[in-house]
Amino acid sequence: MPLKFLQKSSSLLQNFNNKCRFKHNWIQPEGYDTGIKVYNCVTKSKVPLILKNKSFTKWYTCGPTVYDTSHIGHACCYTKLDIIQGILKKQFNVNLVTVMNITDIDDKIINKSIETNKSPKEIAKYYERDFWDDLNLLGISQPDIVLRVSDNINLIVNFIEQLMESKFAYQSEDSVYFDVSKYENYGKLQSIGEGTNTKIPNKRNTADFALWKGSKPNEPYWESPWGPGRPGWHIECSALASSTFGSEIDIHAGGMDLRFPHHENEETQSCAFHNNSQWVNYWMHTGHLHLKNAEKMSKSLKNTISIKDLLKTVDRDDFRMACTMSHYKSAMEYSEEFMQTAKNVLNLYKKFIVNCSEYNKGILKGELNSDILSSLVHNTAEDINKSLCNDFDTPGVINTLNHVVSTVNAMLHSTPAREGRNTEVAHLTALSNLVKKTLNSFNINLKESNNVIDNSFIDIMDVFNNFRQDVRNYGIVNKNKDILKFCDLARNQLNNYGVVVNDHGNMSSWSKM
Prior knowledge:
The protein is α/β, with parallel strands linked by helices. It is about 45% helix and about 15% strand. The protein folds into 3 domains: about 25-320, HUPs (Rossmann fold), CATH 3.40.50; about 335-450, Orthogonal Bundle (Isoleucyl-tRNA Synthetase, Domain 1), CATH 1.10.730; about 455-510.
């Protein structure tokens, strides 16, 4: 049965152009308090992240319009959202159900089909496959549920019909528009300019947005009560997300550029459809990616770098580390220098894990302070949790890990005052595990980064490492600089192939990056 909506009073309609006409309120949901504070674009402050259902959390992400190759701006957005999802799942044990739409019919797809002399369907299928390939290369988990617009036209038409019946939408010629003057809370997510009663062709108000677009010659179309046509962009996400999650969504995510008008219009028409005052409890927006000394990256500015081109020179885990070092809401600058910094930080953590392992094996013999290590184990876990509860402050976590690594490395490479290892080994292992667990929650798996290698390679490297160690010790004893120079050269050449050789006094070890 169609929903019945409350009629808006005529006084509210008359005051639509009053800049102070309504106070936009965010309604704190009832449910499970995660202990996390997140930024809220309605209140412009951090608010408690409260999930409606502890055992089932609804997450919707705006997917791509598949008309071209994805660029590193998309990589940044989806990687940052993947990091947050990993944190919720692995650090806070949240059972996320994730949904994403695929816009496979749009003006841009039609224009591309004309340029290439291929059908819109061919264009959409090709670039959707390319999108999933890119996400896989970046190590980004695919959503649990994927909904394509072209597969759900009837659902979208039914959604529009309900808005028409409740008088929130009107037909103008062969198109249908949402009437923003009928919805009192428009501009909830982002303050907008007024003057919406200005008359322009086919629209009652300038802010009205298309729900259904009448077809043009030689364009794909579907039949509807308003004639042949296709959906508007904003209605797609509302109808598809509502079909899966209903009248309330925990988290809705996308890039900062989608907050207005896309997310604003989604929230508006969905609240009108469901007859409620809040459809999404938490909007999550990622910052733009900028090229160094340039504007934001976008296809319209023709300053993009494809994801596949990115990964020719940058390892996916290094890029993910760069995204972790930048807060999800903040703009991120892409440059060779920043990518190298991220790579260095990740290599620092890899080396730390190796150093801890080598201490446990007796290769490293530094003097460890059990009191400092014990304090680090306790405080580090607490500081990481505080940062993650503070609007997913991953840069704060990186600062905490850097402090751990620098403090412990100083001890590992110190001169031991005594022989033997006691409880320090347990504390050291606990810290090593904590670093690995934290990075794993960001979907940076150090075990995978070290690459699994076959036994024959290990045997060969062990033979070479032992030989080099003996030659190097001979050079040290006999003070032969030429021999030591050749040993250093061999070490540096192996590093070019991802093999790291470490010298610890008269002993040497190796690991695979």
